[in-house]
From TrEMBL:
Name by which UniProt lists this protein: Ras-domain-containing protein
Gene Ontology MF: a single term: GTP binding
Organism taxonomic ancestry: Eukaryota, Fungi, Dikarya, Ascomycota, Pezizomycotina
Single GO BP term: protein transport
GO cellular component: endosome; plasma membrane
Membrane-related topology note: Lipid-anchor
InterPro entries: P-loop_NTPase (IPR027417), Small_GTP-bd (IPR005225), Small_GTPase (IPR001806)
UniProt family annotation: Belongs to the small GTPase superfamily. Rab family.
Length: 217
């Protein structure tokens, strides 16, 4: 475990990867989490993009996420192992208005459980929750029931949240829950390397507003 300042202050770094079908809103979730921003129209991610963000769990504990936001297009699928290799945690995203995206998410979960770090913390995120709201100007577009996805997540041993990158609902809560699930007290050199280890190059989205992003909320 890495420390800064006094011996009572804990500062831990973890590698996090986002996976899911194209256009489910992976990049928008990350942008909301890192910069508290949302754009209605974003270009698809090419390969992967890299960002960082920290969370203060309490006065004595800070977690830094080194985030790899992967492209969802099928032609980039073979590159995914380079990004989830040695990852400490993963967010697998689906679109609550697109049933096929949950099937794809389940396939990613199986792949992670089979090939990634055996102690990886996996969260399932049903994105675009804002499209589930009924109102005078909008009819719910929900196609995947919360209970069904939640039951699958429970059976698979996953954290589960429904989120909206557009409204920011449950975005911070999602990443905070992951941080709390990580083994902060047991983190050793291997965990640090998992966060800092060499990986493929990506676009560092912390440095510019002109980013290569996945589309939609």
């Amino acid at each position: 475990m890495a420390t800064r300042g006094s011996t009572s202050t804990r500062f831990a770094q973890f590698k996090l990867v986002l996976l899911g079908e194209s256009a489910v809103g992976k990049s928008s979730l990350v942008l909301r989490f890192v910069k508290d921003q949302f754009d209605d129209y974003r270009e698809s991610t090419i390969g992967a993009a890299f960002l960082t963000q920290t969370i203060a769990l309490d006065d004595a504990t800070t977690v830094k996420f080194e985030i790899w936001d992967t492209a969802g297009q099928e032609r980039y699928k073979s590159l995914a192992p380079m990004y989830y290799r040695n990852a400490n945690c993963a967010v697998v995203v689906y679109d609550i208005t697109a049933p096929a995206s949950l099937d794809k998410a389940k396939a990613w979960v199986k792949e992670l459980q089979r090939q990634a770090n055996e102690n990886i913390v996996i969260a399932l995120a049903g994105n675009k929750l804002d499209l589930a709201a009924d109102g005078p100007k909008q009819t719910s577009r929900r196609a995947i029931e919360t209970a069904d996805a939640e039951a699958y997540a429970r059976e698979a041993g996953l954290l589960f949240f429904e989120t909206s990158a557009k409204t920011a609902e449950n975005v911070k809560e999602l990443f905070t829950a992951i941080a709390k699930k990580l083994p902060l007290d047991q983190q050793g050199p291997r965990g640090i390397r998992g966060a800092q280890g060499a990986g493929p190059r990506g676009v560092n989205l912390n440095r510019t507003n002109e980013t290569q992003q996945g589309c939609n909320c």
